[in-house]
Structure prediction request, 744 residues.
Amino acid sequence: MSCRLPLLAALVLAPIVLPAQTDPATLTLDRIQSGELRTEGFGPVRWLADGSGYTTLENAKGGGRDLVRYDPGSGKRTVLVAASQLIPSGRDRPLRIADYAWSQDATKLVVFTNTRRVWRYHTRGDYWVLDRASGKLTQLGAGLEEATLQFAKLSPDGTRAGYVQANDVWVEDVATGSRQKLTEGGSATLSNGTFDWVYEEEWGLRDGFRWSPDGKRIAYWQIDASGVGVWTLIENTAGLYPKLKQFPYPKVGTKNPACRVGVVSADGGKTTWLDLPGDARDDYVARMEWAASSDEVVVQRVNRLQNENRILLANVRTGKARTVFTDRDDAWVDIDDDLTWVDDGSAFLLPSDRDGWRHVWRVPRAGGEPTLITPGDYDVVSIQCIDQTGGWIYVIASPKDPTQRFLYRVPIKGGPPIRLTPTSAPGTHAYQVAPDASYAIHTTSSFGSPPKIALVQLPKHATIRTFVDNQTLRDRVAKIAKGPAGFFRVETDDGIALDGWMIRPPDFDPTKRYPTLVHVYGEPAGQTVLDRWGVGYYTWHLMLAQKGYVILSIDNRGTPGPRGRAFRKSVYGQIGTLASHDQAAALRAAQKKFPFLDPTRVGIWGWSGGGSMTLNMLFRHPDLYHMGMAIAFIANQRFYDTIYQERYMGLPTTNAKGYREGSPITHAKNLRGDLLIIYGTGDDNCHYQNCEALVNELIRHGKQFRMMAYPNRSHGIHEGPGTRRHLFEMMTRYVEEKLPAGGR
Prediction:
């Protein structure tokens, strides 16, 4: 039995300071920024391995947080670890728990604390181990510089901990504190057990080592970024002279980091390197896990074009690997964590688009033809749990509405999906299913309706108890003045049906025409048209609607809605081109369908890929869009990283025209409307180079525009006091200045 156990993010609520004399019907930036409209969270939650209960964190009376266990049926609460047990010797306060994990037998607890950010996430910090029987609290890597450990996890028997320190893998005896270094050579360009920038950003890989099921070996990735082009971030405000931060970053068409997988004894010794086919730099190791065995690992080997994924089983003693399945696609193959072993390791389940839909297939360990498990004209969004005892696969899907998400189960032998989420419950539903599939933590929300979190019994989906209902927030949202809002579908002139949402002013008059502000993303990495709370900067858009704007968003072809392979992958080789066509065609169709949209007052804005789309729409369709705000964009697709951009565009040597035509900078000479460009100079993802290159091109063509550079801010432009308030105040003023509000 195997279940996906996503982490329910813990949300520690700070005291909310409400603006003075707040009008509950009127939204302001002060109200939005105050936290008054913030959702309450729950967790993080861990199901116990036997499914008998779940654990979570709760505030303790004396400070800190208790770790408690709940029986899902009776609701009985038991404090497993009190906050008072997590006070290190010589300190007066409990450890601040950023994350935690149990040993397999739940006799030991690993606490992650004192964290540091590495790129986007806090993956470096201190780790402590509590022995529940003795009450002994031990710091891993005691005596080392603080907050230098990564990804600490216990061996299957709980006696040892593995972790990464200074880009090498170590094993430590929990009882004695003796340490053994398993790898060599860790440096700024050589990473053992962790990853460089591009593997972390684009493959979602951070923790790069795995204990074998018997605890005798560790398998790990090694990333060699030597020879990769180096990017430099310049911090001009660090002092009298700038501070430079450099890191390897492979841009489109350039040299990639080399990647290989090794297996080493947990007692130390020589590494056995896997003999993987292909080139170490041009072929990726996108996933690696132990293959339901301590003798083999399973590797997903993806070629540089990312249109082929070879599933290999490798012998950890000899390093020899054999291919058991190859997934191919004319566009690109999707990689995720849904490869799951079944039938005592004799087969695995794997999603694939090979028949035109994202379906689950059963692949024999010995190789051979896969068997289709989820037939039908629908996409499986993700596998949530596999209940081999009961004979079911639990999946997220939405066969009829790509804006929503529901829980289904499918017979493990194959068959049609059975919906478990009640048909009376629209919106987006997420689940954390217990290992025995008897219960699940259920989170649901919809457009304009804050989330609820509850325990439900499966398969009948009966609510056992509610953890969070966000009633205070619901009451506040109910008092906000709102106009008609909802989802719509338009058909473009070339027959493509596209989904969108729309928010209208509270005093909406259908006989008048209103200015339109379009929120856009438009790339394969995400959707904006989703029936869930908070989507697309919801409260800010509500505030603008109160000022007299119609806000809308549309998902073009190429966005990852569950509408089949053809819809999702038709964009291959033409990022920025096909999406621009769809966005413009959809806007024209919307203007015909909704005559209250004023075609003379149209604005558009977006962030990251949405910033690029904003530029493309202003430059390629200046007759339709009159103002735009582009944030943290890619101006030239050649400036982005290999893994993401080449996945969807191919190589620049074979698709030079596609790269040129899809890049906004190519069309900058066509700007006629008002443009505000916004960038963080410390953006390690989309580099400030994009901003400066576009500025030069606009100047070359005599185009006037406005720009704002936020010193040292990253891709999210959130660092520093007052940053987000300043950003959205500037954007609000620009909208009001360049796109006159109100119905006419």
User: Anything to note?
Assistant: The chain has a mean pLDDT of 95.
